[in-house]
Design brief:
Helix content of chain C: 25-40%
Strand content of chain A: under 5%
Low-confidence stretches of chain A: none
Strand content of chain C: 15-25%
Shape of chain C: globular
Largest sheet of chain C: 6 strands, mixed
Number of helices of chain C: 17
Shape of chain A: flat
Radius of gyration of chain C: 24 Å
Distance between the termini of chain C: 46 Å
Low-confidence stretches of chain C: 261-291
Number of strands of chain A: 0
Oligomer: heterotrimer
Chains: A mainly alpha, B mainly alpha, C alpha/beta
Number of helices of chain A: 8
Number of strands of chain C: 19
Structural class of chain C: alpha/beta
Chain lengths: 234, 195, 498
Amino acid sequence: MTRKLDPRTKLFLLIVINVVMMTGKISGVFFYVRLAMVAIPFVLMLKNKMYSGAGIYVAMYTYVFALEGYTMESINGVLLIIILFTTGMVSRFLAGGMMAYLVMKTTTVSEFVTAMERMHVPKVIVIPFAVIFRFFPTIKEEWQDIRYAMKMRGIGAGGKNIMQTLEYVTVPMAMSVSKIADELSAASMTKCLSVDGKRTHIAKVGFSWPDLIFALCAIGALAMHIFYGGAITG
Amino acid sequence: MNKRLEVKDLINIGIYTALHFLCVFIIAMLGFIPQVLIFAGIIEGFIGAIPLMLFLTKTKKPGMLTIMGILLGVITVIMGRPWQSILFAAGAGIISDIVWKLGNYKSPKAAVVCCGTMMLWMGAMGLPLFFSFRDNYLASLEEGYGPDYVEVIRSLTPDWMFFVMILIAVVGGILGGLFAKRLLHKHFEKAGMTE
Amino acid sequence: MIKFSNVSFKYVGNKTEKGNLDDIDLTIADGEFIVLTGESGCGKTTFTRLINGLVPGYYHGEVTGNIEVNGENTQGKSIAELGRNIGSVFQNPRSQFFNVDTDSELAFAAENIGVDPAQILRSMDEVTRDLDLEKLRKRSIFELSGGEKQRIACGSVAVMHPKTVILDEPSSNLDRESIEQLRTILGIWKKEGKTVIIAEHRLYYLRDLVDRLLIMKNGKIERIIDSDEIKRMSADDNKKLGIRPFDEQEYIEKAKRKTERKTAGNSGDENGKLAAEQSGDETGKSVAEQSGDEIFVSQMDYSYNKKEQTLAVRNLHLPLNRVVAIVGKNGVGKSTLIKALCGILKARGEKVYLKGEEWKSKKRIKNCYMVFQDVNHQLFTDSVLSELTIGMDDKLSDEKKKEEAEKILKRLGLEEFGESHPMALSGGQKQRAAIAACVASGRDILFLDEPTSGMDEMNMLRLADEMKHLKELGKSVFVVTHDYEFIDECCDAVVELK
């Protein structure tokens, strides 16, 4: 499998995984539907050589599914609720979260923009969306640096005065974010980015047979979900 | 001044939407515990309002908040919420756009109100718990988690609770807006960031 | 040809009497290599922005006079239109990329104007070959070093085959090796006959390239020096003009003498790139005694990810009560080392001794202070003055604090800005404000990460004086730097990391 999945396929998979995992039924045949959803990020992780990540991912799901099965049969009351909340949280969010991470990691901004423009999304949506995409890792870097600075000044994240702490996070964050916004805009403009110009793309975006397989799998799950799962529809 | 959206505006929309979403999302993760679920809204609103306030200092044109709303809606749908979420979030954006325009893109009062109205998009996040989505959702939960769990959720979330939840988020937004305004006054005006 | 006729400019926010550019008259011929220099705020950046259209298209203000680029008046042209023939490289490698991967960024500008994809790819391959970017293709921007990012920035400009390239302080965040690579790229552009215009403080890497050097002051071109004269200029001549030297060799030699290579510390383990090179100081005192006035790091390991070990220090001696320069190539772990020394990074298996006594990271963090390379994250408060007083000894009275803070600000040339908000300061002023806060903290061991990046001559000298002053007060200062003129001014010892 040398071809990358099309960004549109990846987004579709992400939506279906989230719908099924968050709002779908979980017992009977739907256990297998969920299993299929859990498997999608796993396969993609293997494809991207994230072996240790994939291992942890599988271990967590095995644990959570086993715990759910066990507690349902043998525990009642408050303890059950507490356990179900924790396991529910993991089983619901992990697959979707992993998939979201994979979409971000394996899709370049330019592929993403290309795919969106193929869907005739207007530029006023495409450009900010692409920026969101680019900006998450930047926020992570900024947050890290602010943490260092706070640590050195002896300001803890959960300090005594929460409002003060909030201020000490907000001010440097605002300062550097607005600087980045400013410089990024200036640089993009000198690189001829404009709201109305027609762009070309070097990114090779398109559907091929892996897209088909994944999409069929997701469509199947979604159909099950809609017609037999009885839960919300898309 | 030119009212058409420029590259700079679009980049600002992207950056502050990312920041706002992340603030809300991190706190929403805590909201899966039912007793907290309802009140998480107030903290989400409070923290989320800070980047919103920063964004408003850069927003001088119509449509920017609407685009922010649409983007927040799209992210919500990607996260598995019903597609109607987009309408909800876009609505929040449109209302905020109107409020901000009425405030001539500079009134501090309007900015605080905007922080509240923008938080209406949180309705999209809670949508599966209510209305026609509700019974299906709870049924699916019951099958998996048993009646005890669902009873807790059900008792906490009658339909009118939907509006209470949104209201709480809006109140959180306004409080956060007020806090951010204080910061803004202290820091940003002094720094010459607002004109 | 670029022609400025009686050009003046004033930014919208500028409330002072004088404009930011004042009556500039200048003609730049095709293929000419122009360097603009002068102290911070002299108008050199504004000058470059007038050419690429960022002024007044993005940074608004009032322009008078006439600017022609290649025979066409720039007025009324959008930045994007001008961008077809004018490439721009900026100071901050962190914020000038729209994309997250290098290939997309290389293609970005060409895609934006709708060039045929096949042609873009051809052009990218040419540029990759010409500028030697092979190793940087198909990479994530976030894993590149500052120097690598700057090369991609140059590459993304080159793909458009612009006639003119504008660079605004491109070397500020780079180390010597990266600057060398930047020089190579600039040399290629000169040979290709591109018009190159650079606003820059650091001049040594431009000596053989520059055709005309413009020294600016208060928005005017104060002096124009041609290439023949530049070739004859000595370091002293530069000092008299108040500009950075063309020739740093002399300073490098001197620094080398300060790096006495005594018994070398053990090298790192096999995959560790770093081993500390032993240094002495000018008194020639032995620093090998663990009980002496020194910080002794017997062991310190750190890695950001599983793949690569950033830090593997064994037996590193750092003299106290001195100004010590820490030098070494990019990526060798200098910044990581001082972050770990100061206790904000938790290193593995660390053993650090101060005067023979073990110092845990919790204790170090209370007694050390670090000024980061990007100071935007370390200014928290609403005025420069309170930025200083907030960290001062609580026992002091408020008046005393204020008095002390004002003294420090004065020494660093910030006396006018005590009441200003840190956010309203320029980049260089922010940097000095952060350093002032560091001095005010009263802590004994101070670390500075590249404090002179983007600093003009005058401020660099001020900072050097401040370093000497700190030493007199009995503080220990460690400076990660590759600024040899600065090392020559104030550092007593040099530690080279390998």
